[in-house]
Amino acid sequence: MLSFSPTFAPTPKTLIGSSILLLAFAAVFGGLNVSKTKTLRSTAVQAVAASENAEQARIKKENELKARESAIAAQQAKIADPDDKTVASEEQLAQILNEKKQLETKLQDKNTEIAALQKQIEEKQPASANPGAASTVELQAQLDDARQQLDSAEREKNLLADKMQAVRERSSQLEEEKKRRAVARSKVGVHGTILAVNQAYNFVVLNLGGRNGVEPHSEMLIVRDGTFIGKIRISSVEPATAIGDIITSTLARGVQVQPGDIVIYAGSNS
């Protein structure tokens, strides 16, 4: 049994005061704990929200990357298809150049033949009577035959010239086609952002321009959140910006182009 000295004997007032003091301490600590709990809970909520935002941003970036890779792959496939024909085109070009060389040789031979016929005609013109020479009838027949050969040679020469012209034009077309393919390959992956949209007149302003290789009449894919939504066709180009017309037939019903949408080079129709 505990005993208290008369000096420190508890009284009802002392007990009540002690209880009140303990309750006050308990209330203070409880308030601190509640405040700390609220702070921790708020911090946890903010951390979760930040984590969710970071995850959403990561997913969005992944989608954009996948969309870009898909668009690039599609463009590479689009360019690869003509490239599959490049070897055949180059072989065709070599064949045409060889044919051109042969035609030039034939044309030169034909010019030589025509010159010889013309000289022959001049030599067989009727002259003064010569007892040892052929008769006038024979000379006239030889002259007519030479003239017919000359006419035939002239016609063949014209046909060869026309054929050579067609060969030259085809050769030029193949060379231009090779240049266009080389330019298209160099632009694969060029991408940018739509800065502004004019819905009334269906055009957009891009943050790409001539410095980035953008050309009039080229087409660009529009991608949003990793999804293809439509196309634009470039109408005018400045060094750092460009204006493109929205190809409305490529947009899904109810979809509108918005600032911030991504554009990716798709090729030229010029």
Strand content: 15-25%
Strands, total number: 6
Low-confidence stretches: none
The count of helical stretches stands at: 3
Biggest sheet: strand arrangement? 1-2-5-4-3-6
Element order, helices and strands? HHHEEEEEE
Sum up the overall morphology in one term.
Answer: rod-shaped
Brief characterization of the structure:
With 270 residues, the chain is α+β, with helices and mostly antiparallel strands. It contains three helices and six strands; from the N terminus they run H-H-H-E-E-E-E-E-E.
Your description of this structure?
- With 270 residues, this protein is of the alpha+beta class.
- It is 60% helix and 16% strand.
- It has 3 helices and 6 strands, in the order αααββββββ.
- The chain has helices at 12-84, 86-123, 136-186, and strands at residues 191-198, 203-206, 218-224, 227-237, 242-247, 262-268.
- A 6-stranded antiparallel barrel has the order 1-2-5-4-3-6.
- A hairpin with a 4-residue loop joins strand 1 and strand 2.
- Helix 2 runs antiparallel to helix 3.
- The model has no long low-confidence stretch (mean pLDDT 75).
Question: Layout of helices and strands, plus pairs?
Answer:
Elements: H1 12-84, H2 86-123, H3 136-186, E1 191-198, E2 203-206, E3 218-224, E4 227-237, E5 242-247, E6 262-268
Antiparallel strand pairs: 1-2, 1-6, 2-5, 3-4, 3-6, 4-5
Helix pairs in contact: 2-3
Core attributes:
3 helices; 60% helix; 270 residues; alpha+beta
